[in-house]
Amino acid sequence: MSYVGWILITGALVGISCGLIGVLLILRRMAMMADAISHTVLLGIVVAYLISASLQGMTMLIGALFAGLLTTWLVQWFESKGIHSDASIGVVFTTLFSIGVVLISTSVGNVHLDVNHALMGEISFIPWNVIELPIIGDIPLAVVMLTVVTLIVVLMIGLFYKEWKITTFDPALAVSLGIPVLLLHYVFMTMVSITTVAAFDAVGAIMVVAMLITPAAAANLWTDRLLVMFGLSAFFGAASSTIGYGIAIWLNTSISGSMAFATGLIFLISYLVAPLYGMISRLTRKRTVI
């Protein structure tokens, strides 16, 4: 596989995994939770480094995962105490992220860990950090992690598709049917955390947020069918990575930033021409009724 090929595969895997998770985030009106987790994992990474003195290995993954789960638990706890969801997310997000920034500035020192890297990532370095697998050979570590995460996401959505659908659209019905709504909520937040952590180091927080929210929002303009929405969101996420790479090469700029920008382009096109909820189709239907 060529250098460019690994970058495109990495971007596509981020787009697919985040696109699938993003559908449930959008439909559950939890888009800002994605922004919160993608930033607060920085605290987990910094704490893991302070403990292990290494930026490699499972320690980083575990630290970031715990930070994501801590964010979810704190937001849920504040909500249970009567604080509005958006306020809970805002308080937890800004507090944990700022603690991570302070620790980077005061305790980490001169290692390759800084706020700019955390926000934008550096996907162009992905092909150089490889792991040797039996039979297959050398493969970038990020590709292996993202492949595993994508398979987990697809498996979890497939196995509990009915439960996700019912708890998303009618939580009260789910409770009456005996479906463990709260447990599924934490399982879902764990999936969000794992997906975010896997993509964080490669592409940075900005692209993670863009891939979690924008492809799903675009897909929501095209269809009301949940299964079709999953497919469209994953496709838009993967397409954004390819289009964004082309833009980055053309303008000689940030690859991750360009991929995030490409998600916005796809959303804009969808907003204009989507046959169900696109602006043009809505204006056409309005004129027909008149």
TrEMBL record:
Domain of life: Bacteria
UniProt main location, coarse: membrane
Record flagged with keyword Nucleus: no
Transmembrane segments: 6-27, 34-51, 57-75, 87-108, 139-161, 168-188, 194-214, 226-251, 257-277
Record's keyword terms, sorted: Cell membrane, Membrane, Transmembrane, Transmembrane helix, Transport
Family stated for the protein in its record: Belongs to the ABC-3 integral membrane protein family.
Protein name: Metal ABC transporter permease
Species: Jeotgalibacillus marinus
